[in-house]
Amino acid sequence: MTDVLPGATPDEMVPGAADDVAPGAPRAEAGLPARLRRIRAGRNAAFDRLVLDLDGPVPGVRVQYVDVLRHQGRGDEIPLRGRAVVQVDVHPATAHTDDGRPTLEGPLPGLAGSAAFRDLADAGDLEAQLTWGIGVAARTGVRASTLTGPTRVVVDVWHAEPGTGTRLLRRGDSGAAVATWQWRLVLALGRALDVDEHFGSRTEASTRDFQRAHGLAADGVVGPASRAAMRHALGL
């Protein structure tokens, strides 16, 4: 497993040992690339997760923040929604068979409602290396790991904090911090709410409901007490 702090750039491809890697699990060797079969995305309380399902030995993975995502073959810029870009390199791995047929099944995962993920793009399948880019809401912590049974590459991107210290979030605010607060309201209240980075009337009303449920002043403004109550409610 490798953790990447905002701004850090790992120099080596890492295998990323994980908790369910079986002893003696095969590792990819030169000439034996894993083949990409499916890409999935999920939302957790504190981070968003991207999973690449592969067939074959476990490859290495490298994650890093880049200023611009470029196609690894053509070199042209690939625009992504979001305020930062995470580049994911997987090697040795391919997304095609020996006769050139694509192996990736189904559409790319939908990212609506994600607190961190904003966009996803294929940036190359060249010389046994797959490159993907993730547009994210903010430059936060990133973790990459590999799993077996079946072979998977996992990339976790942490949510931005919904404010720190005495900072307040209130109606009219926008940004990654608001998206994180909205997602936490979804989890804490068990109700639908748009995670759209805009603190509008519905987010304010849901904030008031959360505050009432936790014995706080129901003013619809997110401050230190509301954030602490939310952390406690979600076990963060």
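That was protein one. Protein two is written in the same sequence-then-structure order:
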Amino acid sequence: MGWVAKGEGMKSMGKRVGSLIAIVFALSILSTRLEASQCFDISKGQPEHLSGQLIYRKFPGSPNFEDVTLGDEPEPAYILRLDSPICLTGDEFANEAEPVSTVQLFATTATEALLRSLVGKDVQVQLASQAAATTGHHHAPLLASAVEVSPTKDITEEYGTAATTVRAFYYALADGNGDQAAQYVIPEKRNRGPLSAAAMTAFYRNLKKPLQLVSLEPEAAFLLAIPSSANRKLP
């Protein structure tokens, strides 16, 4: 013989269970949004800057999008693995409830060499032409052109070394401030010629695009400063 529970108490319990389920569901959505703490509107050209680890991978493409070794066309791509997940809105293919942890980057003429050289490193990227993925040929939820790329580095490890002077020199050049830059040049060179304050100001202040220091690496007994490609060569 079966038993059927009836009564007001059971109705009340049913309501409580229903409320509990609704709370759990709401908390799961809240947890997802907290995990993706920053939400960006693609329709407004967001996000403009992101940081993470740059990787390079060949994905399987047509016809089956499964395995390159089984005949699928290889589709190489630069992928930015984000430091923290984000969420996306403003595009019919963007799902705000799904955290995004990778971005497929497309190189420009100016950034192709930089992307290649920075694979495997932590980088900061300035983005343009943002869009949500729509096909199997897209290999991350967010697509964007990488218009500027620079390595991320904790410069506190340079404190107490010559690197701080070199970095300050290039930062001054980036501002077109020859007077400031000349302070980091030995006296014999700063009074005249291309390393004088007037010459550096005239040259770097008139660049179409400001100088950008991309990397500062120790090289034997010297420090090798690698600026981004400028519009003209230093005279």
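The first strand starts at residue 38 and ends at 41. Keep this in mind for the problem set.
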